[in-house]
Design goal:
By secondary structure, the chain is α/β, with parallel strands linked by helices. It has a domain of about 160 residues: FAD/NAD(P)-binding domain. The protein has 9 helices and 18 strands. The N and C termini lie far apart (about 50 Å).
């Protein structure tokens, strides 16, 4: 069998999205695509939730768990700020629904194959192309181009590295407790850690059902018992949900770093997804950038060109992220006040474009004036003199029982 044109390693959001876009009808150049998925077990992530914003009518709308026309942020004193981000809606997509939707397209796509294997390495070959290796250095497959979506084994040297770590419960309450039209992005009525910030995150599915998360931006994750206590406090003392049942849970750790994650790992080896820099360092949002990244690659390949590998976020948004991460980590700005002021002062649609790295320069400057100017300027002046150091390995989320 001839080597495939494209090999995709990993079937998470980035790998499936690239396969989805490559196998869309109508390409000028027919492509053979092989998707290498991890076998069931520790290498395959559990079901998870992705959130993003776009206007109604997106390609994955039929698979959404929910979407919301209103967003709310609560200050530490409970004061709410509600915004209408139209034309955007805030969308929630579960990974199993996304996999089913993409699987239906791929099942009938000519030239597409899917296999399971535990990949240990990807490397260029001496001639043209790259190869995928399994245990013992065995060559699993060779291809003209390999796109590796596996999470990075180690984070790159950085001036600041924080972790966005969270645990969430899907809860079912006995009485109506949620507004299905409003998503709570940040609720700062939570005890704040010594470094970074914490907040509640509530995504209602109906008046009785919601995903409720406790999230921190801080240097290290909590123990399972720490998340459990934080969620018990938030659901009972802050939200006052009364009696409820936990139907499912999810957890995660997302790196927030100003280190450089290159999208090229060799002559014919590319990185996509978080490994290719698609996670926004200051927020942890990833899914929308994954779509931009993989759509650009697929459009180039389907047109018969070599893939462009632009950074998912421009130099200016990355510089702003570096300043914010350092300001938060140093305690120069208080995260609760920073984000509360931002949501109060900036219209919802403009703020979402800013958080996605797609606002204009003059808008960024106006938004910057809504932040604590003096502490941020001090951080701007300090940052060039800070060394980049190797961060510790990112720990895996620990299993916990509600």
């Amino acid at each position: 069998m001839p080597d495939p044109d494209v090999v995709i390693v990993g079937a998470g959001a980035a790998g499936l999205s690239l396969a989805y876009h490559l196998c869309a009808p109508g390409g000028a150049v027919p492509l053979s695509v092989l998707l290498v998925d991890a076998p069931p077990g520790p290498l395959r992530p559990p079901p998870r939730t992705w959130c993003y914003w776009e206007p109604p009518g997106g390609p994955y709308d039929s698979a959404l768990a929910a979407s919301w026309p209103r967003l709310r942020v609560r200050a530490a004193d409970g004061a709410p700020t509600v915004s209408d981000p139209s034309p955007f809606r805030y969308k929630m997509l579960r990974s199993d629904a996304f996999e089913s939707l993409v699987g239906r397209r791929l099942s009938g796509a000519p030239g597409f194959r899917r296999i399971e294997a535990a990949v240990t390495a990807v490397r260029d070959t001496p001639d043209v192309g790259a190869e995928v290796l399994t245990e013992g250095g065995q060559v699993l497959v060779r291809g003209r181009r390999v796109f590796d979506s596996r999470p990075p084994r180690r984070l790159p040297p950085a001036r600041t590295t924080l972790l966005q770590h969270f645990t969430g419960w899907f809860v079912r309450t006995e009485r109506p407790a949620f507004d299905p039209a409003t998503a709570d992005l940040m609720d700062f009525r939570t005890p704040q850690p010594p470094r970074g910030l914490s907040f509640g995150y509530v995504l209602p599915l109906d008046p009785h059902t919601a995903l409720v998360e406790y999230t921190e931006f801080s240097p290290a994750p909590l123990t399972p018992d720490g998340y459990r206590r934080a969620l018990h406090h938030y659901t009972r003392q802050v939200l006052g949900l009364g009696e409820f049942h936990i139907t499912a849970q999810e957890r995660g750790i997302i790196p927030m770093t100003d280190g450089h994650l290159p999208s090229r790992a060799g002559r014919s080896v590319y990185r996509i997804g978080t490994a290719g820099g698609a996670t926004r360092p200051s927020t942890g949002y990833t899914f929308a950038a994954v779509q931009r990244q993989t759509r650009t690659v697929a459009d180039d390949l389907r047109a018969g060109h070599g893939p462009r590998t632009p950074a998912p976020y421009g130099a200016w948004p990355r510089a702003m992220d570096a300043v914010l991460l350092r300001a938060l980590d140093s305690g120069r700005v208080t995260g609760t006040d920073f984000f509360t002021r931002l949501f109060r002062a900036v219209p919802g649609e403009r703020l979402l474009r800013f958080l996605d790295g797609r606002s204009r320069l003059h808008e960024d400057l106006l938004i910057g004036l809504r932040t604590p100017v003096v502490p941020m300027l001090r951080t701007v002046l300090e940052l060039p003199f800070r060394p980049r150091t190797e961060p510790p390995p990112t720990p895996a989320p620990e299993e916990s029982t509600p």
